[in-house]
């Protein structure tokens, strides 16, 4: 953030969240450490390992917890003095299970809508629309205590949206979901912005999943900013080619045959078999179009089938591998969650 803290910001403007040298210190731990970052409209991922400071940042941005130092604005409102006004305009889906088990989703979301100031009829109408939007239908009349984790996450999402906010904070919305449930939740999150124009700040320690959902990604580690950039900048293509081939009776280890043939032509390769989702993969640096032709010809001469030849993309996890500030434990945990 520049010196112009006060002159930024509405959803139509460029910045919806701005922090400047924001710190939060607890007696034994610094949860946020001089964090300065601007977030624009759209879907933004706030990524970091467990304990990186994501929930702490959200609580400060909602005006629920005071910062130790620095300042922050949400939709142009100072978090230190305008917490109530911020919470009128911002929806919040907390990380932990906080739903009353004995009431139905409809009763609960109507209650939350009323708490946000909606009159009774509007609260009931908005609740019906919002629960339908998050994919809860007949179940919405049953007590929440009998819901699956995925259904509970949808109720938490619905209560965050029911008062028609300009911005929502979603804290680990895919927590506890299986892969299908996670994909459905990520699809819902994307539609919050595309269908309703609501900006989203969504946290996750699963670095890979936000690559597909977010326009912009902010990575924090140990309370410090590691990187903030558009998802396309994060995942731009590299000059590394990944090649995978079939085996044949003549070449029972096709990968090895290709490696030796390429070496004989002066092209060095690396083993990429450890990469996520990879079988036997060779990596090499592309030196223009000629490299593609050479690889194709080598594979054809050996009589092997080409399973794939693709340019590798960067992954958000690589920020952690390069990060200077991360503790080894946090880095291992974050990278371990990518796959
Ligand atoms: N009220 C508190 N008192 C003391 N320490 C706290 C408090 N709240 C958070 N912390 C500590 O601050 C650090 C950041 O916690 P925070 O919950 O913000 O992390 P996070 O990135 O949201 O991770 P997670 O997803 O595991 O909650 C952690 O070391 C945590 O133990």
TrEMBL record:
UniProt feature, compositional bias: Basic and acidic residues: 325-339
Source taxon at top rank: Bacteria
InterPro entries associated with the record: AAA+_ATPase, ABC_transporter-like_ATP-bd, P-loop_NTPase
CDD domains the record matches: ABC_DR_subfamily_A
ABC transporter domain sequence ranges: 17-247
Pfam families: ABC_tran
Keywords from the named record: ATP-binding, Nucleotide-binding, Transport
GO molecular function, one term: ATP binding
Region (Disordered): 319-339
Signal peptide limits: none
Family from the record: Belongs to the ABC transporter superfamily.
This protein's name: ABC transporter ATP-binding protein
Species for this entry: Streptomyces bullii
